[in-house]
Amino acid sequence: MPKRTDIETILVIGSGPIVIGQAAEFDYAGTQACLSLKEEGYRVILVNSNPATIMTDTEIADKVYIEPISLEFVSRIIRKERPDAILPTLGGQTGLNMAIELDNSGILDELGIEVLGTKLDAINKAEDRELFRTLMNELDVPVPESDIIHNLEEAKAFVAQVGYPVIVRPAFTLGGTGGGICHDDKELEEIVASGLKYSPVRQCLLEKSIAGFKEIEFEVMRDSADNAIVVCSMENFDPVGIHTGDSIVVAPVQTLSDREVQMLRNVSLNIIRALGIEGGCNVQLALDPDSFNFYAIEVNPRVSRSSALASKATGYPIAKLASKIAVGLTLDEMMNPVTGQTYACFEPTIDYIVAKIPRWPFDKFESAKRNLGTQMKATGEVMSMGRTFEEAILKAVRSLETGLYHLNLKNGEDLSMEWIEKRIRRAGDERLFFIGEALRRGVTVEEIHDWSKIDFFFLNKLEKIVAYESTLKENQFDRSIARKAKRMGFADRTIAALWGTNEREVYEWRTEQGLVPVYKMVDTCAGEFESETPYFYGTYEEENESLKSGKESVIVLGSGPIRIGQGVEFDYATVHSVWAIQEAGYEAIIINNNPETVSTDFSISDKLYFEPLTIEDVMAIIDLEQPKGVIVQFGGQTAINLADALEARGVKILGTTLEDLDRAENRDKFEQTLRELGIPQPLGKTAVSAPEAAEIAHNIGYPVLVRPSYVLGGRAMEIVYNEAELLHYMENAVQASPEHPVLIDRYLTGKEIEVDAICDGENVLIPGIMEHVERAGVHSGDSIAVYPPQSLTDKQIATLADYTERLARGLNIVGLMNIQYVIADGEVYVIEVNPRSSRTVPFLSKITGIPMANIATKAILGETITDQGYPTGLLDQVSGVYVKVPVFSFAKLARVDITLGPEMKSTGEVMGKDDTFEKALYKGFIASGMEIRNHGTVLFTVSDKDKAEAAAIAARFAGIGYQLLATEGTAETFREAGLPVRTVGKIGGEGKTLIDVIQTGEAQFIINTLTKGKQPERDGFRIRRESVENGIPCMTSMDTAKAVLRVIESMTFSAEAMLPREAMPAREVHA
Amino acid sequence: MTKKRYLILEDGTVFEGEAFGAERGMVGEVVFTTSMSGYQESLTNPSNTGVILVMTYPLIGNYGVNRDDSESVDLHLGALAVREIEEQPSNFRCDETLSSFMEKRSIPGISEIDTRKLTRIIRSKGTMKGMLTEAGADVDVDTALQVLAASEMAQSLVEAVSTKRPYPSPGRGKRVAVVDYGMKHGILRELNNRGCDVLVVPHDTSAEDVLAWHPDGILLSNGPGNPEDIEEAPGFIREVLGKVPVFGINLGHELLAISCGAKTFKMRFGHHGGNHPVKDLSTGRTEITSQNHQYAVDRESLEGTGLTVTHVALNDGTVEGLAHETHAAFSVQFDPEASPGPEDANHLFDRFITLMERHNGKEIIANA
């Protein structure tokens, strides 16, 4: 069927900020959607609140709205743009929920707007548990015994029928938020309560647990002519019971005979036909390992994380084709973009094995519960391809960048067997590695199967890997043994450790022996048709298909999996760098391993290598491609960390030199540079012992910022206010020694400023300056950033520009740099310089219209900023106010403290833009998911040092009619200040405690600041967690609280009574 | 300890791998299949008689071999070439490993070779002969190439695989005679599932004998080799056409075409796999089919044969289905019985049943 001609304008709804359960895959899907609709000649309007995406670049759609995805704002855009149709199935759960909300509001009917792709009633049938179950019954597809419950009594009645364990799945939530498996009454009460809270319709599905079944997924597509295909089948390494987003997944299915595959394929296609899906869809099934019995678990009637994975695993661009299906095209009339000569209506077949491993944030959140269950906790994932399972899984392991290169843990030998067994029985992020440790100790696969229910197929493979370690050890530098090991995916590093040598030596020996990887093409058809897709993976085979072109090439290193501190922003910069390289006339080659991103879409670069970002894997590609050089500035810390080893092997790092990178990152060298440039930084010194630390702190004055020198990215960083706290930190948090000094810096309470700049070695371009709402001490990624600065003097701005230019030239920056400043007592100090692309690059690029990554890349390739036609120095401010508000995923991560501090905790960000600071902030807060009401109650519980400041804030809340609640001490201060306040009991106190207040939803905001010490700290922690679990905004910084207050004040008309006559000020009478 | 084994292609390419299955060497035509599952079905498919089958999916043997999924009792496959053979299969129905299954049936295999390279050679140069060396034997490329050049592919493949005498597979529904040119069990299963009373007859049974059994319909099965080699088929088909409904599958489809005067040709490397889109011209819908054919019907030659094209391969336009304009006869080039592969086209058996029902009706009227 040809495409629709009765529609012209289409509104695409994006997925908003990156949160756990909804990450970069929707930037990939959304970008594909917009571009493919434009390709068909439609006018595309995009709304998405996330500035860090390629999708929100103005080139991607005809009109881009970076506005909150809320009924209020999307309705306004619809009224203004009058689209003929909306496409909601490519913006994740957020997009779907928005479409349903719009439909319910009546605006779609009112304006005659059609929903493209899968219809809303089909979406409802797939998402609403009861409707889904009814449909499955009609289709004769078994579903696990289950019941929809609306309260705990109903839950208990169900358990009485089917027994434990049962799974709780809240309706309409992302990544299973609030759900889990219950083994007893206590867990049932807890999880049902949280599930009901998180379900927007206060509804949960209780399901008889079928934990232990094989979890199988089919990515399917259907068009309006009822052509339906399976794009990819996937099998979870972890049996049913762990959210598929948290499972290790392989493609295609490995342990199913064709009969089982066809049985489940038929079921999947029957389901999407019955639902009337028009586009992509994900079907999850559970298969009994001992019979043909199966159950349908879930259907996602939209493009999802799994479809991004399936697209990258097969090369088949699901989102792109789903968008075209939405406008009426059918699969049998569209070409398969990979082969270019066959049709899209076919089922990809692959000739390699794909492994996906999730990336969890537990390295950042050490206190978090590491158990995995039905609620997703991973922030991102890596994918790898190999010609054996062993190769695929080991490549995925080293793609994770967790410091592990093999199936072993760092301190593996020291672990007790009990501990290992426990960590295998109870699934957690490191289970794969604990299995490796167990096998190494001779635990049988039968035992491990008993503990984990993981299929023997996978366990046997892991055992083969572990067994081969001894073979390697006994046969050092034996070519055929080494070849076999490489074919099993062993890293040079692992082999080196077994041979008692170093990685470099193994690499050189191997290269001499001609034991180098070849690169195979991902072509959707297992070689059956000729393809020209420049999409490759490395493996140890005979024939290499990746031929070096005649053109000079530049390699860009990607940023790997999405994790806290390294999000989609770096993918944004990577993609722009690739485009700039192409514009400059070179062949752009990208290496990355994240299946969710735009950068790993094979149509972006001239060549895509889907490979781990380790020195070994990167060098192998460099050896083949012989590029002009490698760009490391855009791939975050992942790429920067490789610079050293690459240069040591003679690879040219393009842009800022390694020596200068080091000058910015090495503390002593950096200090020296600053001294030479005459730029002040907060006083600081390094200490190697506790007494020395105390002395330094005494000399520079409290509070001080302490952190170990050997840890990057803000981990274990703390602000301490007195000697007792310092000594506690020195004793507990770090072990200072001459090898591991501790850095002690004066903590300046001041405004934090962030500047991004581009330098070509000579000229410096500063697109803008951002001011943080939260004072210094909160990680820049967790702060609200504002452009332009709201409270700086012209002189301060001039100083910032001057320092930035001097730093850029002084550090010989060629490319991008990011600087954090603090302004205390009117003085500007430098805190940190990052000689690379930063989190704020997309935000600033979008606001100022300066394509920063593009200009920086061209500067790196030798074209000066002025030659590129751009001005230099600090640019004039653009009109309007723009705020970047961080978004957190605390609800998904039990036991994580939400207090903002020097360690970054946010997973994503949104942008708010408007004429005034307050309006922009309002949008930012709304887009971040906060509800802002113009009346209500605010609960205070703050530490002593913050009480005075809190009183001032409380007074303003009271002034606009908010009720005040506070705990004893805080209430006392408020009363003294003459404020009307109700006291609530502390945790464990008599009568109504603050926990009751939080749980009953009595307060709309909570303002809580960290109290040092023992018991109170734990209370504070409880309060903060309770607020998260009950979905109530909790501000842990006075500055955030003030910002919220400012917004509420601006939306509220004043409510002041007329002054009584006697209270009027005396006035002169005019004659 | 595994033994070395070589695969030498006609073009001189040598693959060094490891031996599994039987130890003997052999010569055969190298064909690749892109199905990711269903190796047991492919291995036991009589259409693959004498063939060196290359599995493009690298992990083969994952779920072992079971007693349910074979498509024939005797194995006629030439050899199997894989990237990796799994010796520790995992599946609840697994009875033995693939390599022991092959060993017992004297089928040699080669593993640890770059099957993608092999596939790409066949894709670009077309199907060619290959020689598998005896396990552990050294390779002598010159001799191997001489042997390859001298070896003729067997012509009487059908005779070798067809049943020697008729056998029934009873049911209470339509009486269907299946002419066994190398029938997959899947065909029998689909007919029996629909209640058919089936009589499987040898490839050279006379039309008279078959018609004497009073079948409601005749199914021409799949089978190995060049359809033009099966001299007894066209005459048989011409005799039964118009008397009872005829359904041709795969080789049976090619034979129906030939018997009506059309020509077949050998494809470059054929269609082998479970992901082939076929457009049903009557409904406009595209179905994903299981295919395993090296020959196809020449579209040009159909003129004047009374046959109309009903199905085409979406990707290369190959004739995938035919129907007779005046007689109750139709055929498909692909395998609607699947096993292995997608079952989308399974409904064609229903169509055959319907055709038999209608035809019966007509005859009753005619007799009245």
UniProtKB/TrEMBL annotation, chain A:
Mn(2+) 4 binds at E832, N834. The lineage of its organism: Bacteria, Bacillati, Bacillota, Bacilli, Bacillales. GO terms for cellular component: cytoplasm. Keywords: Amino-acid biosynthesis, Arginine biosynthesis, ATP-binding, Ligase, Magnesium, Manganese, Metal-binding, Nucleotide-binding, Pyrimidine biosynthesis, Repeat. Mg(2+) 3 binds at Q820, E832. Composed of two chains; the small (or glutamine) chain promotes the hydrolysis of glutamine to ammonia, which is used by the large (or ammonia) chain to synthesize carbamoyl phosphate. Tetramer of heterodimers (alpha,beta)4. It catalyses: hydrogencarbonate + NH4(+) + 2 ATP = carbamoyl phosphate + 2 ADP + phosphate + 2 H(+); hydrogencarbonate + L-glutamine + 2 ATP + H2O = carbamoyl phosphate + L-glutamate + 2 ADP + phosphate + 2 H(+). It comes from Bhargavaea ginsengi. One of its GO terms (molecular function) is carbamoyl-phosphate synthase (glutamine-hydrolyzing) activity. Mn(2+) 2 binds at E298, N300. Belongs to the CarB family. The large subunit is composed of 2 ATP-grasp domains that are involved in binding the 2 ATP molecules needed for carbamoyl phosphate synthesis. The N-terminal ATP-grasp domain (referred to as the carboxyphosphate synthetic component) catalyzes the ATP-dependent phosphorylation of hydrogencarbonate to carboxyphosphate and the subsequent nucleophilic attack by ammonia to form a carbamate intermediate. Mn(2+) 1 binds at Q284, E298. This is Carbamoyl phosphate synthase large chain. Small subunit of the glutamine-dependent carbamoyl phosphate synthetase (CPSase). CPSase catalyzes the formation of carbamoyl phosphate from the ammonia moiety of glutamine, carbonate, and phosphate donated by ATP, constituting the first step of the biosynthetic pathway leading to pyrimidine nucleotides. Large subunit of the glutamine-dependent carbamoyl phosphate synthetase (CPSase). CPSase catalyzes the formation of carbamoyl phosphate from the ammonia moiety of glutamine, carbonate, and phosphate donated by ATP, constituting the first step of 2 biosynthetic pathways, one leading to arginine and/or urea and the other to pyrimidine nucleotides. Pathway: Pyrimidine metabolism; UMP biosynthesis via de novo pathway; (S)-dihydroorotate from bicarbonate: step 1/3; Amino-acid biosynthesis; L-arginine biosynthesis; carbamoyl phosphate from bicarbonate: step 1/1. Residues 930-1071 are annotated as: Allosteric domain. ATP 1 binds at R129, R169, G175, G176, K208, I210, E215, G241, I242, H243, Q284, E298. ATP 2 binds at R707, R746, L748, E752, G777, V778, H779, S780, Q820, E832. Its EC number is 6.3.4.16, 6.3.5.5.
UniProtKB/TrEMBL annotation, chain B:
Residues 3-133 form the Carbamoyl-phosphate synthase small subunit N-terminal domain. It is an enzyme of class 6 (ligase). GO terms for molecular function: ATP binding; carbamoyl-phosphate synthase (glutamine-hydrolyzing) activity; glutaminase activity. Its EC number is 6.3.5.5. The active site is at E337. It catalyses: L-glutamine + H2O = L-glutamate + NH4(+); hydrogencarbonate + L-glutamine + 2 ATP + H2O = carbamoyl phosphate + L-glutamate + 2 ADP + phosphate + 2 H(+). PROSITE patterns: GATASE_TYPE_1. InterPro entries: Anth_synth/Amidotransfase (IPR050472), CarbamoylP_synth_ssu (IPR006274), CarbamoylP_synth_ssu_N (IPR002474), CarbP_synth_ssu_N_sf (IPR036480), Class_I_gatase-like (IPR029062), CPSase_GATase1 (IPR035686), GATASE (IPR017926). The keyword Ligase applies. L-glutamine binds at S47, G223, G225, L251, N292, Y295. Pfam families: CPSase_sm_chain, GATase. Residues 1-174 are annotated as: CPSase. Keywords: Amino-acid biosynthesis, Arginine biosynthesis, ATP-binding, Glutamine amidotransferase, Ligase, Nucleotide-binding, Pyrimidine biosynthesis. Pathway: Pyrimidine metabolism; UMP biosynthesis via de novo pathway; (S)-dihydroorotate from bicarbonate: step 1/3; Amino-acid biosynthesis; L-arginine biosynthesis; carbamoyl phosphate from bicarbonate: step 1/1. One of its GO terms (biological process) is L-arginine biosynthetic process. Belongs to the CarA family. Composed of two chains; the small (or glutamine) chain promotes the hydrolysis of glutamine to ammonia, which is used by the large (or ammonia) chain to synthesize carbamoyl phosphate. Tetramer of heterodimers (alpha,beta)4. Small subunit of the glutamine-dependent carbamoyl phosphate synthetase (CPSase). CPSase catalyzes the formation of carbamoyl phosphate from the ammonia moiety of glutamine, carbonate, and phosphate donated by ATP, constituting the first step of 2 biosynthetic pathways, one leading to arginine and/or urea and the other to pyrimidine nucleotides. The small subunit (glutamine amidotransferase) binds and cleaves glutamine to supply the large subunit with the substrate ammonia. This is Carbamoyl phosphate synthase small chain. It comes from Bhargavaea ginsengi.
